[in-house]
Amino acid sequence: MGTGSTLPVTLHEYKVRASLLLKDLDSSDTARATRAAERMRALPFFAALPLGEVLARRDTVQHKHGLAVVAREAGHTTWTELKQALEARAHTLDTRAFFQKGQSPFLNRWFSTYEEAARSLEAQGGFLFPFREQCFICEADFLQALGIDARDADWERMGRDWVRPRDPAAKERLEAKLVSRGFGGHHDVR
């Protein structure tokens, strides 16, 4: 979705990031290897070492170290903690389910970036949701046809914006209702 994207990153993507970090660390390009060594210093063991020593020990760096670095960069203490957070997210709203229930007669506005969608939401109203790498805005009738109460006060509290809600607690309450109605996630958390 471009800059400012808040779409969730999959576990697979984090594994790829860890592999790329190790590839960078082993690079013959000194600047690339140095940047990777700096990132490795996010781990307590490497933090205590001078940068040159991290580079000298790059042959001893394992995949688990790369995973730990990307977990820390994502705001988690360990890889296990990151994995658990992603598995918990698997029980979140999956907007793909909106379109598996035969709601094709409704026209929704589609956008390749969140920023475009947010401008449209402000100008024309509706309800903004993420969908894979895009965003869409639907009308209340679309939600009502899915059996979702578009008049629930929490929609207004969150600004009708699922991606960047004004009130995260309102979103959590709505999400719990929607997931319990069969709109739960099936994210890849392997």
Summarize the structure.
It is built from ten helices and three strands. By secondary structure, it is mainly α. Strand 2 (127-131) and strand 3 form a beta hairpin.
Folded structure, characterized:
- There is one protein chain.
- The protein is mainly alpha-helical and 190 residues long.
- The chain folds into two domains: 11-89, no CATH class; 95-180, no CATH class.
- The chain is 49% helix and 7% strand.
- It is built from ten helices and three strands.
- The chain has helices at 11-25, 30-40, 44-47, 51-56, 63-73, 79-89, 114-124, 140-145, 153-157, 168-180, and strands spanning 109-111, 127-131, 134-138.
- Strands 1-3-2 form a three-stranded antiparallel β-sheet.
- Helix 1 crosses helix 5 (63-73) and helix 5 packs across helix 6.
- The longest helix has 15 residues, at 11-25.
- The radius of gyration is 21 Å and the shape is elongated.
- The two termini are 23 Å apart.
